[in-house]
UniProtKB/TrEMBL annotation:
Residues of the signal peptide: none
Protein's UniProt keywords contain Transmembrane: no
UniProt keyword terms in alphabetical order: Methyltransferase, Ribonucleoprotein, Ribosomal protein, Transferase
Descriptive protein name: 50S ribosomal protein L11 methyltransferase
Single GO biological process annotation from the record: methylation
Gene3D superfamilies for this protein: Vaccinia Virus protein VP39
Molecular function terms from GO: protein methyltransferase activity
InterPro entries found in the cross-reference section: Ribosomal_L11_MeTrfase_PrmA, SAM-dependent_MTases_sf
PANTHER family the UniProt entry points to: ELECTRON TRANSFER FLAVOPROTEIN BETA SUBUNIT LYSINE METHYLTRANSFERASE
Keyword Ribonucleoprotein: yes
Any one GO cellular component localisation term in the record: ribosome
Amino acid sequence: MSLMELSLDTTDEAVDWVCTLLAEIIDINDIQITKYIEQSQPKLAKQDLAHSPWTFTIRLHIPYDLHSRVTIEKIVNLLSPLHRTGLATTIQTTVIEAKSTGTDIHNPLIHRIGKRFVVLAPDTSYQSQTTDEVILRMQTSLAFGSGLHPATILALQLLERYIISTMNVLDLGSGSGILSVAIAKLGATVLALDNDAIAVQATQNAVVQNQVEQQVKVIEGSLGVGSDLGHWMGGITSNHVSKIESQPTFDLIVANIFARVHIALANDFKRSLRPGGILITAGFTSDHEENVVTALTDVGFEMIDCERINEWVALAYRLC
């Protein structure tokens, strides 16, 4: 049976959003993400390609039948806000006889972050280039944090710099589980905490996929007053979400979450770290930076490091 292939190009920021939106209509495991290349937009002039904002191409497939037009209209309407705001191109459609799979997928995504991290799809064939590379195999999921969003990249860059194998680490708002897996592969032990059931399952799947079950414990819950804030992204939390009391048990906390949650949890971060502990905050843009820094320095943190991608920022602090 023939298929209709739909494709669009996106920025770093849009990948997670596109996947989440598309999951309302199609099986998320059928989404293919590859590096953007010139052929994705052959009509662009050479001078425009040099300044292209696109970094990834997303492809999906639907049956080419009487219902195709209706499905395509739904997808176009669903993704139109991303196009209007400049985060994605318009959708292109092509009729094909069979979709590419496995090694036939054009330009499979190999995403390098920092000096050591390499993010791959679970079935991507890859030969390590150096002995100290850290391979993170991540399945597309509905949870935030694919490894393609700037906030996740920034958090990984700081984690690479500060994780020591003897550390006990809290990954607050674990999302897809990519940060927990990265921390474990650097040798530390991790408590992965998220108040969203989908994120908890995605984290657990990532832990198993990357064979770090012995180092990562995954819990559906929140830290301290975080349990009073409800679902941080506006969703629904279940009744059995655990509240983790703030006690000085962690050497490092990483939180890739909204600025308002960082601010609300400032005292809980302080009470949960051992003396001299490290806090890495990400998930917000520079327009929220001053408020986050003020809230954390007011309770005794000293900012020691920073990474930026465009308007996105991640900050590292030491507990004085």
